[in-house]
C-alpha cells in the first residue's frame, strides 16, 4: 500500500477553467485555453494582472470545476492506498474554508483525517505526489508525478500524467 499525496488546484479542481470562466463573466471576453499553453499561471489574459486578483475574491476557490475523472480515480485509489489531499491554503485568506467546503461537496468520501492544508509542501512524506507545480515536486523525496496544466506544458524532467485515467493506469 502506497501513500499518495494529491494536490487540489490544477489537479482535482480546474483552476485554468475557473480563470477563464471568471474572466469571461467579468470582462465579457472568452479566452481559449489553448492560448494559455506555456504561459505562467494567471497570465495570458488581455488585461494582465486582473486574474491574480481572483485568488483574493470570495467564492473563487469554492466554485472551481472538478477535473474529469478525478472523483472516480481518487475513490478507487483510496481502496488500495493511503491517499492524502495536500493543498497550499495559507497564502489566500478565504481559500482554506472554501477548499474544505469544495472537498466536502465534490469528494465527500475523503475524510478530514486525509486532508492536509499547508504552506510549503516540502514537509510532505509520501511515496507519490501528484501536483501541477514543479516548485512542490522539486523538493519531494518520493516519486513526483507532474499533472499536466497549461502553465507546465513545456516542463521536462518529471514523469507526467495528463489525465486521471493515466493516474489510474499507473497507480491502480
UniProtKB/TrEMBL annotation:
Q: Which GO terms describe its molecular function?
A: 5'-nucleotidase activity
Please give the biological process terms from Gene Ontology that the record holds: pyrimidine deoxyribonucleotide catabolic process
Under the heading Pfam families, the entry gives: NT5C
Q: Which SUPFAM superfamilies match?
A: HAD-like
Q: Which residues does the Swiss-Prot or TrEMBL record annotate as the active site?
A: 7, 9
Q: Cross-referenced InterPro entries, in alphabetical order?
A: 5'(3')-deoxyribonucleotidase (IPR010708), HAD-like_sf (IPR036412), HAD_sf (IPR023214)
Instruction: Tell me its family.
Output: Belongs to the 5'(3')-deoxyribonucleotidase family.
Q: What is this protein called?
A: 5'(3')-deoxyribonucleotidase
Organism whose genome encodes this protein: Chitinophaga japonensis (Flexibacter japonensis)
Source organism phylogeny? Bacteria, Pseudomonadati, Bacteroidota, Chitinophagia, Chitinophagales
